[in-house]
Amino acid sequence: MESIYILLTKSDTYFSRFIHYVTEDEFTHSSIALDRNLKQVYSFGRRHPRLMWPAGLVREDVRSGLFKQSENNNCCLFELVVEDDVYANIADDIENMMKESRKYHYNLMGAFYCKMNIPHAKDNKYFCSEFVSDILYRNDALPLPKPASLMRPVDFCDVKELNVLYSGELKYCFR
Hints:
Radius of gyration: 15 Å
CATH class: Alpha Beta
Largest sheet: 6 strands, antiparallel
């Protein structure tokens, strides 16, 4: 058995504040990690920390950049225990996507439609929680309570298969 990790955060960026204002959700960003130390973390977000666009598939560093600026903000880290083959499939899936990361873009319209509860999946476009949900679903790691294009970061808090490992300030989350 292996573990996959889901990290929920809220940064101090204007976009995160806007999402929080519109949704009133505690967390506005989700990432998927392949290790407990959070060294292999992936999501859809800014390609360059200081620029909102371009955005797309990125490998995130929770110890620097936007995460470092928001290290006093709350986060929640979940663990999902999966079979070895499911873990391997997820790792391969992410690796293959990363090899072609430039073809993946941020699904801004999907994020807005998500708030209105209207599914809006697009080829090669994701917002953060849509990406995490889709990776888990298409690799048979987790049944979703709703379509991936309707999953918001806070929706992971209600998924019974996920175990909370940590809830608190981001700077204390990783070992």
